[in-house]
């Protein structure tokens, strides 16, 4: 009997990566079940009296819904299994030694991007950090690779690329502005991250010019709470978004810099003295949600984003200079007594 090592056989001829993502084991593909509602009058009008007469003979019928309306069969969801197909090699860009040297010498400026798509009965949600100084990998190429890996139709390529471009344009100028290192701009940040039916919420104070990176903060939180490693990039991404949002509000003159951080003895920062609540508002929490709660929170989040964009679009008319703050004069528009969106 001869023994053939598995390493000598051809590897990676087939792949089931895209089908495994659709099994609901990750937060990238979320299956959305359509809600079917029957019209009340139509449901009440459909009666089969033959069935009722037959049911009179069944004295042992334990159905509690008898007589309350028509019987409705609940459609069972088909079982999803992994399916494999012939693996295709991803066409990644090739870089020369000179291009790699130029990339290494270029400053990396990361901005948070979010992708949200609807495909068949799935909601596809992804997030990533994008280097705005990336000269080789374009949004179009990234979208093409994403559609190939996830087995999405070619038509989604343009949607993904356009969404990425609009977000990059929104963050480019803001991300390149450097705040003074000794400004001591501390703000209160609320984080809410939902992954795989788990909701992470936290409230803390953050220095906008802190030497601690969002990645370091996220790594510590994941280790302390012993939660899934998938939360690490999600928390870091959400914190990047919150920092840029607070940074924009500070530049435009709307940030609540003097907000109450509940520090003890009226200090600018430090321990909080809360004898009644014991600081319960300032601790991280993990909550398990149902599918309906997840969809409802996602709708609320999208509504809040649209509202914030409308408030940002109202900024107009008067201008003020930020040259004394950033070393050179920059022009920003100031809102004429617009109320805080919070």
Description:
Keywords: Nucleus, Transcription, Transcription regulation. By secondary structure, the chain is of the alpha+beta class. Among the domains are: 91-176, no CATH class; 186-266 and 278-333, no CATH class. It contains 10 helices and 10 strands. The chain has helices spanning 17-21, 40-45, 49-55, 97-105, 139-150, 156-176, 214-225, 231-251, 291-313, 323-326; strands spanning 14-15, 29-31, 85-86, 110-119, 122-131, 186-195, 198-207, 285-288, 319-321, 331-333. The strands form 4 sheets. The protein has a 3-stranded antiparallel β-sheet. A 3-stranded antiparallel β-sheet has the order 6-7-8, with helices on one face. Helix 5 (139-150) packs across helix 6 and helix 7 (214-225) crosses helix 8 (231-251). The longest helix is centred in the last third of the chain and has 23 residues, at 291-313. The radius of gyration is 27 Å and the shape is globular. The chain starts with 13 loop residues before the first strand and ends in a 9-residue tail after the last strand. 11% of the residues are buried. Mean pLDDT is 73; it is low at 35-75 and 315-342.
Percent of residues in helical segments? 25-40%
Output mean pLDDT.
73
Series of secondary-structure elements, N-terminal to C-terminal: EHEHHEHEEHHEEHHEHEHE
Main structural class: alpha+beta
Strand order of the largest sheet: 2-5-4
């Amino acid at each position: 009997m001869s023994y053939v090592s598995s390493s000598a056989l051809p590897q990676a001829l087939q792949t089931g990566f895209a089908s495994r993502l659709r099994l609901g084991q990750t937060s990238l593909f979320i299956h959305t079940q359509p809600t079917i509602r029957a019209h009340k009058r139509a449901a009440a009008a459909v009666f089969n009296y033959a069935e009722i007469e037959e049911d009179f003979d069944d004295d042992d019928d334990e159905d509690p819904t008898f007589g309350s309306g028509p019987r409705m069969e609940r459609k069972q969801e088909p079982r999803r299994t992994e399916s494999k197909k012939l693996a295709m090699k991803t066409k990644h860009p090739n870089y020369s030694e000179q291009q790699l040297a130029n990339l290494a010498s270029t400053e990396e400026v990361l901005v948070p991007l979010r992708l949200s798509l609807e495909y068949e009965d799935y909601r596809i949600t992804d997030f990533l950090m994008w280097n705005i100084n990336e000269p080789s990998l374009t949004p179009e190429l990234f979208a093409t690779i994403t559609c190939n890996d996830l087995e999405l139709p070619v038509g989604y390529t343009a949607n993904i690329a356009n969404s990425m471009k609009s977000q990059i344009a929104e963050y480019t100028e803001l991300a390149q502005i450097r705040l003074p290192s000794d400004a001591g701009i501390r703000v209160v940040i609320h984080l809410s991250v939902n992954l795989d039916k788990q909701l992470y919420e936290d409230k803390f104070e953050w220095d906008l010019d802190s030497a601690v990176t969002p990645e370091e903060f996220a790594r510590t939180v994941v280790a302390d709470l012993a939660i899934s490693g998938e939360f690490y990039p999600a928390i870091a991404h959400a914190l990047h978004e919150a920092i840029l949002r607070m940074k924009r509000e500070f530049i435009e003159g709307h940030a609540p810099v003097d907000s109450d951080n509940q520090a003890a003895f009226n200090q600018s920062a430090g321990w909080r003295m809360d004898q009644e609540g014991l600081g319960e508002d300032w601790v991280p929490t993990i909550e398990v949600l149902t599918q309906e709660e997840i969809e409802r929170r996602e709708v609320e989040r999208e509504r809040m984003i649209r509202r914030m964009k409308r408030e940002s679009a109202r900024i107009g008319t008067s201008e003020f200079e930020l040259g004394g703050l950033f070393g050179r004069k920059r022009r920003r528009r100031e809102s004429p007594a617009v109320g805080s969106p919070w």
